[in-house]
Design a protein that fits this description.
541 residues, alpha/beta, seven-stranded mixed sheet, seven-stranded antiparallel sheet, 27% helix, globular, binds flavin-adenine dinucleotide
Length: 541
């Protein structure tokens, strides 16, 4: 659609076509509402986003990455050697869900029940399960836990190699945990094959599932426009201001509501630019305060530490030639090569000694070598040997930080400070996870295939390992919580996702999570978009 034909008014204006935004916009349009969905990035029709196996390439090549990433970095992290870690965020239709690893995890039932126990009525596991089932098209039959016929195809990675299989067997034996046939089912605990949101060799982001494959005659998608603020008149959101590529500004009016789905960095940034945020901070930036709310507080994220082993049972090599031949084979057998699936093959949810009833540690396994240091704009070259990389992942972080404005300029990157590892227990969990993974990799089910731990290497143990973790730890790109949902004075949105004190304005994305769920955050963000649609439409869930 040409830009000249863009409309300037609809019933609902949704900002951000990411994992949550596409779902909420499509849900409203399906119900016949006129919806305008505004996205800063461009189309996701390229093979780069469609083919799951392209993920490694798009993240390794800075010139490609510039085309879809906001290019943010965290503020220097005080407890992590003052490192400036990358904060990758998709800027394209489908948002981060178009550039992510496609691991499909709903989260532990207890996570949602704890949201509900805090007063967030309607967000307990029994409620969100209905949304999860409605959203998915699971490879198996519909059941108490799984949905069939929804817009997002979900399957177990069918392409798992021997290295991943032996990792699962070794983990189950060494840690005395089950091999779980469905970690999105009755229980999360144990070792597993990864489930992914793909189908027929294609990534199923919400952009694909809900919009490209939907029939939505009342939805208008407007790309390449950055929303700079919400227009608020007499305490009511009546539209948004959009800055076009060449700098010209226009206003898009919402007859009913504005819904912000710009993600855990974008939504708080837009709210603050609109005068809704911590009053003193806004005044310092010269922004007139409309609502004094703790927008941007409670930012938190998962962290992981990659470890890489040379093994003799992985078929892959992290070389340009290996990827090139994968792409070539994919042309002749589309959907049948490793390019058709997530690079993640196996994983686990387990408990460290610090867990309080639910898993606090997640493992991932990929049969490739993984570049150990992530801070460079250009990632270091991975080792060329057949390898298995495994990740110790902190999934119940205690550390909390903030998103703030660097300036009142809407085009300036926000200041993102998750205050990583400010709580000492977070480092303890990561180190314990590494020790657990070392035990797993020494188990007889896999040990005979393991040639060497070369990242970080056995020389790092005890205090030396703790120091090394600070050099290597990376965020998992799962930021949440910066527009927290709740019923208390410090909440930004209420359980119906309405911004407190402002009419006609909601937030629906990962930023509303009161606390991060145990597991990857894409499926929960999709669920939040779907739930938002149901809430706005007044559907009985
Ligand atoms: C590299 C990477 C790998 C990941 N791997 C996984 C994984 O394997 N599994 C998993 O579950 N999760 C994964 N995640 C996390 C997951 O993708 C996110 O949690 C999820 O996509 C968040 O959804 P969202 O709707 O909150 O935000 P997003 O999907 O980020 O959507 C926000 C959208 O808003 C747009 N936007 C922002 N500001 C503006 C503005 N001012 N004007 C207009 N548009 C704007 C953005 O361009 C974007 O399209 C990964 C993330 C990354 C970055």
């Amino acid at each position: 659609m040409g830009k000249r034909s863009y409309s300037s008014e609809a019933d609902y204006v949704v900002v951000g076509a990411g994992s949550a935004g596409c779902a909420v916009a499509a849900r409203l349009a399906e119900a016949g509402e006129q919806v305008i969905l505004i996205e800063a990035g461009g189309s996701d029709k390229s093979i780069m986003f469609k083919r799951p196996g392209m993920i490694t390439m798009i993240h390794s090549d800075p010139s490609l990455k510039k085309r879809f990433d906001w290019g943010y970095y965290l503020s220097p992290q005080k407890h992590v050697l003052n490192r400036k870690l990358p904060a990758t965020r998709g800027r394209v239709m489908g948002g981060s869900g178009s550039v992510n690893g496609m691991i499909f995890v709903r989260g532990n039932a207890e996570n949602f029940d704890s949201w509900e126990a805090e007063g967030n009525k309607g967000w307990g596991y029994a409620d969100v399960l209905k949304s999860y089932k409605r959203m998915e098209d699971w490879q198996g039959p519909a059941s108490e836990y799984r949905g069939k016929g929804g817009p997002i195809k979900v399957l177990e990675n069918p392409h798992i190699c021997d290295a991943a299989k032996t990792f699962i067997a070794a983990g189950a034996d060494e840690l005395d945990v089950p091999v779980n046939p469905d970690y999105n089912g009755a229980s999360q605990d144990g070792m597993h094959v990864i489930q992914e949101n793909t189908g027929r060799g294609i990534r199923y982001s919400t952009s694909r599932g809900y919009i490209t494959e939907g029939t939505l005659s009342t939805l208008e998608v407007q790309m390449r426009g950055v929303v700079s603020r919400v227009v608020i008149e007499q305490g009511r959101a009546t539209g948004v201001e959009v800055i076009e590529k060449r700098g010209e500004r226009r206003v898009v009016r919402a007859r009913k509501e504005v819904i912000l789905s710009a993600g855990a960095f974008g939504s708080p940034q837009i709210l603050m630019l609109s005068g809704i945020g911590p009053a003193q901070h806004l005044e310092e930036k010269g922004i007139r305060v409309i609502g004094d709310l703790p927008v941007g507080d409670n930012l938190h994220d998962h962290l992981f530490v990659p470890m890489t082993y040379a093994v003799d049972n992985s078929p892959h090599r992290s070389t340009a030639f290996h990827f090139g031949s994968g792409i070539a084979k994919d042309r002749f057998k589309p959907g049948e090569t490793f390019m058709a699936h997530s690079v993640f093959e196996a994983g686990a949810f387990v408990h460290t000694s610090l867990s309080t009833g639910v898993p606090d540690m997640q493992f991932f396994a990929i049969p490739w070598s993984y570049p150990p240091f992530q801070d460079e704009p250009v990632r270091l070259r991975p080792d060329k040997r057949p390898s298995l990389s495994v990740f110790s992942t902190l999934i119940r972080p205690k550390s909390r930080g903030t998103v703030r404005l660097a300036s009142a300029d809407p085009m300036a990157a926000p200041l993102i400070d998750p205050n990583l590892l400010s709580e000492p227990d977070d480092l303890k969990v990561l180190v314990e996870g590494i020790e657990m993974l070392r035990a797993v990799m020494s188990n007889s089910a896999i040990a005979k295939h393991v040639k060497e731990e070369y990242e970080p290497g056995p020389a790092y143990s005890g205090d030396k390992l703790k120091d090394e973790v600070l050099r290597r730890v990376s965020t998992v790109y799962h930021p949440v919580g910066s527009c927290r949902m709740g019923v208390d004075e410090r909440a930004v949105v209420d359980p119906e996702l309405r911004v407190r004190g402002i009419e006609g304005l909601r937030v629906a994305d990962a930023s509303i999570m009161p606390s991060i769920i145990g597991g990857n955050t894409n499926a929960p963000s999709m669920m939040i978009g779907d739930m938002a649609g149901a809430i706005v439409l007044g559907e009985t869930l």
